[in-house]
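MODEL INPUT / OUTPUT PAIR
PAIR INDEX: 1
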Amino acid sequence: MDPCPFVRLLVGNLALKIPVASKPARSVVHPSSSPCFCKIKLKNFPLQTVHVPFIPSENQFTDGQPQTIAASFHLSKTDLEKLVGKSLFAGKLCLKIAIYTGRRGTTCGVNSGRLLGRVSVPLDLAGTESKATVFHNGWISVGKDAKGSSSAQFHLNVKAEPDPRYVFQFDGEPECSPQVFQIQGNIRQPVFTCKFSFRHTDDWSQRSRSEPTSSRSWLSSFGSERERPGKERKGWSITVHNLSGSPVAAASMVTPFVASPGSDRVSRSNPGSWLILRPGDGTWKPWGRLEAWRERGTTDGLGYRLELMSDSGSGIVLAESTLSMNKGGKFMVDLGSMTNGRSTPVCSPRSSGDFGYGLWPFCMYRGFVMSSTVEGEGKCSKPTVEVSVQHVSCTEDAAAFVALAAAVDLSMDACRLFSQRLRRELSQQNLFG
């Protein structure tokens, strides 16, 4: 089945230059003593706030400098139709950016930043499903003195590129062992089945006894089945099968989710973890490791960290962020966007490869990789998974991302307060939910 058309709108290479004037205008606050940030808005999409680097006025922005993607918007076919659709009452579609000096956030209910200027970039998204388009690349004058020599200069690159994706949807909650359908327009086609069960880490280790000792040792090091004080949730596992019934991916809870001492929540200092497994050479091989915990403070969220595993057992962080426990959200691996909680992608030591910066050798992933919807705590969740076509070359590739999506969804339950009961499917022997 063909993938679904998507477009990735990228905003990157941000920079700000403010000349030093003998009598600067009141609206110009020099960033030498004040940070800079901007708010980026696209119609019908959430506002994104990102840092803007300062460049001394005597310096020039060159393509050879490390470059970053500051924000990205992921547009489905439906989104494109709404944005491109013409109306007598709708003006030309624009990306709107407001640049501020000062710190982000509010103080006593008042925004801390001082508005420096606004930028509006016209967008014509027609045809971007099939070809890349650059809408702007260069400097723009901002501020009240935009026509004078002392104006501030704001640099940005705005472009759209095709990003077709395979879309999968769980037909039920992962713990209910649902089918998984591939979605293409109005067509739903079953492609996988999921089997939820309770396992001991040794069940996976027994399958790897044909592996070298070094391979077995680091695999077992991920999980510890020693008795731990207090309440814990452990042994959860979900296996993804193809339509022939063959297992093609799995997610296994290898570190129990344990309440931290004196509380009823899983803490960041002692997270639970999953191993995402793929079949290979007659055994299961680790592909990724997902850690999850429940954040404290004003933000009651599910914290997570995803690492890509190498054959030697070392890991490279692909994503690290937080999802609202109440509202849920979207788990995303987007290498090169600050919207995933990390500004540094796996394939570059300092910044994004999407704007031409050199890649690490043996880099496996770049750009948008995958996303999965996650419902809030206690709500019925049937994850929808999007996977970039460039990262799927076989059934096992897609299945690994489906298993990862299931692990993220189940982590919402694993990180529920231990004072709350889990649903029957998750409350079995060895569990204290």
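PAIR INDEX: 2
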Amino acid sequence: MSQEEVAREAIKHALKSLRKRHLIEEGAHAPAYIALSRPIISQGSEWKEKAENLEVELQQCYKAQSRLSEQLLLEVAESRALKTSLQEKETAIAELEKELTQTRDECSQLKADLEEKIRALELVMSEHHELKSQLEQLTIKAKNAEAENKMLVDRWMLQKMKDAERINEANALYEDMIERLKANGLERLAREQVDGIVRTSEEGAEFFAESTIPSVCKHRINAHEGGCASILFEYNSGKLISGGQDRSIKIWDTSSGSLSHSLFGCLGSVLDLAITHDNRFIVAASSSNNLFVWDVNSGRVRHTLTGHTDKVCAVDVSKVSSRHVASAAYDRTIKVWDLQKGYCTNTIIFHSNCNALCFSTDGLTICSGHVDGNLRLWDIQTGKLLSEVTAHSLAITSISLSRNGNVILTSGRDNLHNLFDIRSLEVCGTFRAIGNRVASNWSRSCISPDDNYIASGSADGSIYIWSISKTDIVSTLKEHTAPVLCCTWSGLGKPLASSDKNGIVCTWT
């Protein structure tokens, strides 16, 4: 076929296709043509109704659109908040991951340390088991040593008992010799005591006059700082010894009121004083729980007697031998000391503290006054209680023995002063005064050397003098401005000395 024929055939085919398409389109548009052919009035009412419906639908669409817009805004805000929260959580997660990494590192380090500690613990446990086995071995050795030590101690104690028996035999011989010497001395002493007037046995000494009633303050001495609790005279001398809270001991010349010399070395307040009958040694009871012994000539401490566990409030030296000293402390003990050896030879334990004590004239008995108000007598060698009597309703503060040794004066916190016969412990006299009030548990009263008068200080600073025979007050001395703690009479008959809480010492003639 030629090209023209081919073109004609193609044109024909195209025309057929166009006609066929035209017919199809006419069939499709037929309903529209029919509808358009209807009357215009009926179509207008339908369109109006459709328009109204469409308007209603349009309004509903607007409402739905507004709701959707609001919801969209809320969701957008939520989305932003969630986005912010997400970012924060992501940051927190990053920090936690960082902390987790650090924690893992620390955990690894701790695990390594734990393994090291476990190894060290195992080493310590092995050492512990080894030491435990060594300890068991040492315990066995210690028990064996203790048994051996006990056996040695028993042997040593047996030997000491044998030594003590030998020493007791020697002491018995010594005491027998002393008794013989005392028997010779008592005869001389009996010659020296005439009508209550005591004369010295020392060759070349003068006879002593009868005690006079003091009335005038001869000297007012500012002796100690903080108070003066104890004073006493040297035997057969006018020298006065004082001890105070300033821890010093001072010796005064009462004729001039001047200080002779001072003794130092006490570690506490001086609560009581005693002197040997040869005036060589002074003994001080101290609040430091000790007793101190001075050599008067050298001024040095010869002994420090230790053994009490509380303050030592009373001390006395035997009137027969300068060797024995008795002391009382607030540890409920009375101790007897040997000054030559410097240690305790006997200890008496009692339930009531002792405030004051003194030796009997024969040196075999200790008289003690206690807080419970009882006066007790003790055997110095055995430490046994010989007798006791209720002397006061309150604590005894002072004990003073008469020159002849037959009468003992007690003073108490009940403000009474009683005289007892030391042989029967019967009351020989009771002395009291309106205004006389005992100042402390260690207020010391005294008997005159001729055993005719009693002197006692009071809390108001007064000193009361009683006549023993008349049981009346014969003098009241007023010079102190503080409570009077101690009174003591010179063995020469005068002067009388007193001390108070301000450390003032007065001498009276």
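PAIR 2 NOTE: The longest helix spans residues 40-192.
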